[in-house]
Model the fold of this input.
Amino acid sequence: MIILFYIAGAIAVISTAAVIVQTNIVHALLYLILSLLAVAVVFYVLGAPFAAALEAIVYAGAILVLFLFVIMMLNLGQHTRDQERSWLNARMFVAPAIMSALLLGQFLNVMSQIDQDMAIARVGVMEVSALLFGPYVLAVELASILLLAGLVSAYHLAKK
Amino acid sequence: METIPVEHGLILAGILFCLGLIGVLTRRNIVFVLMSLEVMLNASGLAFIVAATRWGHAEGQVMFLMILTLAAAEVAVGLGLIIQMFRRYQTVDISALSEMKG
Done:
């Protein structure tokens, strides 16, 4: 079971690296869906089955499918693909990669000083639901208001 | 009881976050920038779930649900803005958005 954490983590890292070097938008979205499903497996191994189901159903299954629909609707065409291929060369990645590597190096430096283990205990839907209906009920209401605001603004922005 | 070192989970979240950051800084197509932002949000959600497993609480999953809601609303509004931009400028190049006045 623990080896599955490392395998799914490696798949997530490799497919995320593939997302940022793609020239075709649809290919990049499919690699991103693969990355999200690998992270859902990581959530399940860490004992969070509710979060794993949410990640697979909502994030990979609704949000990225919405992305795909809008990309298909925009119908960007071949000249966008050629444009993308001309924009993407290895020289563009140098400075962001150096800065990100510095950030990641600092992060790894701090992480190497931690030496704790986490015990994989399954925190199921019952515990999360008890919290959502109990102490965090206002957070759920605020989340629904946020989604309403997103709905109204998306309707207005996409109208002709 | 099986155990995983907590720093391995956080390192995974950090690597995914930095890859998303590279994508935001490098790409010139606005759709790729939005996708890399999604990668960064997902990495921060992973960090919350790792924290939830470390302490054995369920609050981490509640916070992940809130992050997911935030990502959904952001993608909806962001895609609406991309549609508007495409209608106005007929391109997805972020350099087209260099003026303040439309």
About this structure: Chain B has a mean pLDDT of 91.
